[in-house]
């Protein structure tokens, strides 16, 4: 693995010491297809880690393992120092309450208004909230993504960028410690993609979230990342800040940056 560990203050923001997320020698296969081949990495508290890789490199499986949707074959995964590998479903659900997930397509319920989508998620996580508390949380979440006026719209009335923002509001409404972004700029035009990138950066600043961002978008990787890992054949091929990876001499890594 080619590794760059030097952090340059010109390119990256300081983060708190200590990992919030850690993968240690994690393996995952589907039949004869080895998707994760001893992957190890850490994400520090308050850090944005971008995971780059071509299709089939293990990016999505890594995230599924983190939230317990996929069982690993070997290795360990830690969140806040606690091993989650062998937790039962009830214990996993407690861990999941710390995690907000922005899906690639927003994943809104089409039969519900924006208000109902957010309320459903909030009530699922906390059934003891009053109607006043729910309404306040919804208003705050929509304010944070700049879409207060969309509160009573149906998903079908929203543009792709608006759906992403509402999906982000729904993730933020549970006040997660960890955010996972799955192709946050995928399918968006350039201007809207830049707005989502700015939003990801502002959320980190405002809420001090720890984030994993899966993306093919190099602009997104450049501006949202504190650090990047690039996966190849289920392994971490290279690790470091964007500017150092961009100038890697490795031919395979360089191919990511070819026009």
From TrEMBL:
<dbReference type="InterPro" id="IPR003593">
    <property type="entry name" value="AAA+_ATPase"/>
</dbReference>
<keyword id="KW-0547">Nucleotide-binding</keyword>
<protein>
    <submittedName>
        <fullName>ATP-binding cassette domain-containing protein</fullName>
    </submittedName>
</protein>
<dbReference type="InterPro" id="IPR003439">
    <property type="entry name" value="ABC_transporter-like_ATP-bd"/>
</dbReference>
<dbReference type="InterPro" id="IPR027417">
    <property type="entry name" value="P-loop_NTPase"/>
</dbReference>
<keyword id="KW-0813">Transport</keyword>
<dbReference type="GO" id="GO:0005524">
    <property type="term" value="F:ATP binding"/>
</dbReference>
<keyword id="KW-0067">ATP-binding</keyword>
<dbReference type="Pfam" id="PF00005">
    <property type="entry name" value="ABC_tran"/>
</dbReference>
<dbReference type="InterPro" id="IPR017871">
    <property type="entry name" value="ABC_transporter-like_CS"/>
</dbReference>
<feature type="domain" description="ABC transporter">
    <location>
        <begin position="21"/>
        <end position="258"/>
    </location>
</feature>
